[in-house]
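User: Batch of two.

Assistant: Item 1 of 2:
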Amino acid sequence: METRWTLKYMDLSGKKHITPVSDSRVELTEKTEGGRHTLYVTAKEDLFVKSVRRARAHTCHSHTIYFLNGYQSWTDSFETRLPEGEKNIYFIPPTLVRKFALDRYGDARFYNYRVSVWHGYDVFYARGEDNFFLLNLNAKNCALVIEVRKMLKQLVLKSDFRYKPLLRGESLCVADYYEAASPEEGLEFFNRVYPYHAPEKLFGYTSWYHHYQNISEEILLRDLEGMDERFNLFQIDDGYQTFVGDWLSVNPAKFPRGLSPLVELAHRKGKMAGIWLAPLVAEKKSALFQDHPDYLARDEKGKPIRCGSNWSSFYALDLGKEEVRDYIRNCLQTYARMGFDFFKLDFLYACSVQPPAGVTRHEAASQAYAFLRECLPGKKILGCGALLFPAAGLFDYLRIGPDVSLQFDDAPYMRLMHRERISTRVTLQNTIYRSFLNGHLFGNDPDVFLLRDNDMKMSPEQRQALLTINALFGSVLLTSDTVSEYDEGKREKLRQALHLFYEAKNVSFERLGDSIRIFYELDGQKKTLVYHTKKGVLI
């Protein structure tokens, strides 16, 4: 049984209203064409639109598999069944949440988590006895939150506009989504809306997962010299700058000649030169934070908007100010002029932690990502820590899971952290379950594989699974290993993985309890693998 839309809005006097139909202040117009549903609100007087919501009956069978797409790149995104649940950061003591800003990475501060409810963003499917598919077509303007309410046996759709001002006579599209009777039908429509554009596949090196911030010209020149002709990307990650935010202040002790020698050598070796930045934030110790407090985005109390506890803790920049945009543009274009071809832009959810009044989180992200694209014409961009659907069509590649850990599921205490925590186990899950986005919204980046033995707590079998799954499901295959130091066994594993990466076709999967069966074609033959999600191995 499908209910009407429920609209929440506020008039100029501050009085809040909830209405399922048009009234003296608003007019609701719904259009349905095939499986596409669109709802417009037209204001009869000046007002503020809060949200729209619709609920429909849903049987919630115990054997039905649901896909729930997480809020941003790093958020765990999974297929699940009725008895399973989703993680709530507020089970952690509130003092720890506040101290480390654990609720800033995802949606915990603005979404009310409940034990009996699952939720996801912008795309959803149910497979089994309750076949269903939903796709948000309004994602540049507003998220579509899809909830499975298990106890009430309901599927609820909601768009939150954060009291968006609407002047008399103006109309606003508050919902636009496609609904299909099965995932197969829905994904066929998805593929028409976002046609497949095979991105250039990248096999490359990134400095992070070996050296972390302990990089230098000597270390990176050594690693670059060790790269063979198969690599087409060399990327410098976090650690070259003095502080996050001070992008043009390269650490002179680590890089006395700057970064140009690395760019020049990469190009001489026939590889793209890549660099990491987090352009929308500044850490507390940075000169930018100390000298330009006016550059910081602020909440309604005038306090800087904290986005997390990395580094010395970090804060969002105010993109509404031209001088801030000029600063970011100058930083990015300085590296573009230096010859960098590839830009990994990280922590991009920061613009949506608390957008300006009347701007939705998806709007803020869409505007920020379009600005970053405009700053880097002709350059390849890999977005990370970003809202997925606002990034569609703007970035060449996007991370689709959290950071890989040097052990399969990180330290036990880390498992209590936010849904965006570092975890090889979670990122492998995301790599598989978000694979249908690959080549449509962007090229999927599943993060690195690691085969080396030193500084490593993953078993050889887990490392093999990570390499194989990344090669099958991604458009980017990166490592932080010094591949020239591999023994013959590791060289052969990499050779096989590269063959999968470039030649495997028709890759698909199905969940079987704690395992995922993977299907693909290679050299004209059909192949099958089984991945055990809790053990992290191929069986």
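Item 2 of 2:
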Amino acid sequence: MTEPRYIIGIDLGTTNCVVSYTTANLSQGKFPDIKIMPIPQLVGAGVVEKRPVLPSFILIPREHEIPDDALKLPWKEDNRIAVGEFARDRGAEIPHRLISSAKSWLCNTMVDRNAAILPWSHDRKPNDNNADERLSPVEASAAILRHIRNAWNYTMAENEEAKLEHQDVLITVPASFDAVARDLTVKAAEMAGLTDVTLIEEPLSAFYAWLESTQDEWRQSVSKDDLVLVCDVGGGTSDFSLIQIAEEDGELVLERIAVGDHLLVGGDNMDLALSYAVYQEMEAKGTKLDNWQMRGLIQSCRKAKEKILSDPECNEQPVTILGRGSSLIGGTIKTTLQKSKVEQVIRDGFFPICKRADKPVKNQQSGIREIGLVYEADPAVTRHIARFLRRKSGDTKTVSLSPTSVLFNGGIMKAASLRSRILYLIESWRETADGAVVNEIENDDYDLAVARGAAYYGLVRRGGGIRIRAGLGKSYYIGVAAARPAVPGMPPAMKALCVAPFGMEEGTQAKLPEQEFVLVVGEQVKFDFLASSQRFDDDAGAVVEDWEEEIEALTTLETTLDGEQGEAIPVSLETKATETGALAIRCVARDDDRKWKLAFNVRGGD
């Protein structure tokens, strides 16, 4: 095929997806414009319209649950599932047919992410896993990307060369995604027909969008030694990154120096909180709602919240819930959601005042709990920010970082009162009372910035724009069995060997030729992969003996490597951070040219 005609940025969001695009030709003498693609989707039964966002919801209904031809699309008349607005709205009424938060399931280590488990149901019987009605987290992500591909090809591709699968495609992922979740995202893209994609972190994309909007004027907003906090509170997750402004050869340079954990707290939690607050007021007046009506209340509160936050002049919005029984319309329940209530519930519940040393509250662990998404026990985003800004330097010392600027992203951050609350807290957390004001970096669009930034990054990769030094968002380790005598009742000691340090840039390699280990081939063996978002100072080859508190188990690979059964071979290790944002580890034999690749595969259901 010829060179790509377009650069496509896909914000594969937990709650909403956005697609941006620009020309891949940089020889026109000026920086090309980045546009947002309106995405055709079902907005009602049999009704297709274009929207700037594609809700990340998948509906897999049975025939009697929707009208005939309800799922028909211009590019597929016999369509079986719905993706987008209709899926979200109709799915609220039949939640057992609705898949949501597919992206968050990609990093859930408690389940087999390649198994057909979604829609997730805690009361599902062992033999009730109908492949026609369920998708794996990877397949669900692929279904969303496939809809985007088909929508692009239907509306934008006038010939074969303009089809999405032949363009330069960049897909956004949370900065906190580990190597396994990134690999699964690439796999989902391949299943959707996108065989050559590049991953970019969402907070970086938001920052790239700001660089694109300001062009060369960004240097007037930041200075040498500034530290920018990117605070991205989306519909399903919250993501934090720190970008350092440095100077080299008289020019300002940008480097991402820290990444937060994957936090399942965001706009969805806030919708639940608002619906609960409204229901309490209704209950006090004698109005009761059943579970079906509560789901409708949540959706109505979500729409009201979005309208109030996006329109500074909007002080209240109607909230309606359908009645039950023979008189659905006549029994409709109506109330209003006030702007003051929205700000009070969200500000006090999710952005409370806290101290610099405060930690997120942890619920007491129950002896047994349901398997599902690992939601945060503490919804206070501000306490999660406080923890993120504390990092270890060396083995014991903890330092608190003080951002000088904040770039906000995510629909909830449209509320000026919430942005002001975070700025106020960061100023109050300073170790010295210098009175310095934390600057707010202006965001042109809190909903579309991530997609626009992804397309801008595509231009950067082609030699245009400003590049942010980033690399891996975590430090990665492999478990190495210690050579110690066996002791009754004591488990074998396991050390963590750093094979890929934080910040390792894409396209680079880390080799450990001076450190040798014993590799067993020809029989089934186990490899433990580990990761840390807290240890930023470990270099490739660093060995950590006491790692339980700062390094977490990521996944386990059980495999049989080629070779004579039970043969023990001295090997060294080498690691490569690929251009797609994935990670590849190889064992290299000392005495010959043999190499064994250790992939970040997810172990199956057994």
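Residues 475-598 form one domain.
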